[in-house]
């Protein structure tokens, strides 16, 4: 059956069309998610959430645009959100000495204090709008859409500001081992 026809049927609430689209894309999306997340179970969970979202947003799907591209964009964003949320959770747990055992709390406090000071110093060097958008996205965990709505700017502006701020933050934090810090965090999340 023609994919465009399936998308029109999906918009109308046709469960059979939804099932056919799912069967058509599930294996490719799972492979992409496993590559991104390195966790087959987590990839399966996100795939399920992705297709729940597709069903919920079916009326907004444009049958004239690439459905595969649409799915891949949503899957990538959901994986990034999961990673970012896991990173925030990991950082929170690491910051709570009462939640971990067997770690020198004075050393932990000094490391966190130094890291916070370095991040604060780097943030203070950013232009105000970049700092605001970067903080909302990276620290508070807001999505592009939420930032766009809160600040009344376009998605492209949000993306540009985050990219520029990220580049500057990497430059500012490089002397204290930004790349090493990120690789350690990523490694801990993957385990």
Automatic annotation (TrEMBL):
<dbReference type="Pfam" id="PF04542">
    <property type="entry name" value="Sigma70_r2"/>
</dbReference>
<feature type="domain" description="RNA polymerase sigma-70 region 2">
    <location>
        <begin position="21"/>
        <end position="85"/>
    </location>
</feature>
<dbReference type="InterPro" id="IPR013249">
    <property type="entry name" value="RNA_pol_sigma70_r4_t2"/>
</dbReference>
<protein>
    <submittedName>
        <fullName>RNA polymerase sigma-70 factor (ECF subfamily)</fullName>
    </submittedName>
</protein>
<dbReference type="Pfam" id="PF08281">
    <property type="entry name" value="Sigma70_r4_2"/>
</dbReference>
<dbReference type="GO" id="GO:0006352">
    <property type="term" value="P:DNA-templated transcription initiation"/>
</dbReference>
<dbReference type="InterPro" id="IPR013324">
    <property type="entry name" value="RNA_pol_sigma_r3/r4-like"/>
</dbReference>
<dbReference type="GO" id="GO:0016987">
    <property type="term" value="F:sigma factor activity"/>
</dbReference>
<comment type="similarity">
    <text>Belongs to the sigma-70 factor family. ECF subfamily.</text>
</comment>
<dbReference type="InterPro" id="IPR014284">
    <property type="entry name" value="RNA_pol_sigma-70_dom"/>
</dbReference>
<dbReference type="GO" id="GO:0003677">
    <property type="term" value="F:DNA binding"/>
</dbReference>
<keyword id="KW-0731">Sigma factor</keyword>
<dbReference type="InterPro" id="IPR007627">
    <property type="entry name" value="RNA_pol_sigma70_r2"/>
</dbReference>
<dbReference type="InterPro" id="IPR039425">
    <property type="entry name" value="RNA_pol_sigma-70-like"/>
</dbReference>
<keyword id="KW-0805">Transcription regulation</keyword>
<keyword id="KW-0804">Transcription</keyword>
<dbReference type="InterPro" id="IPR013325">
    <property type="entry name" value="RNA_pol_sigma_r2"/>
</dbReference>
<dbReference type="InterPro" id="IPR036388">
    <property type="entry name" value="WH-like_DNA-bd_sf"/>
</dbReference>
<feature type="domain" description="RNA polymerase sigma factor 70 region 4 type 2">
    <location>
        <begin position="117"/>
        <end position="169"/>
    </location>
</feature>
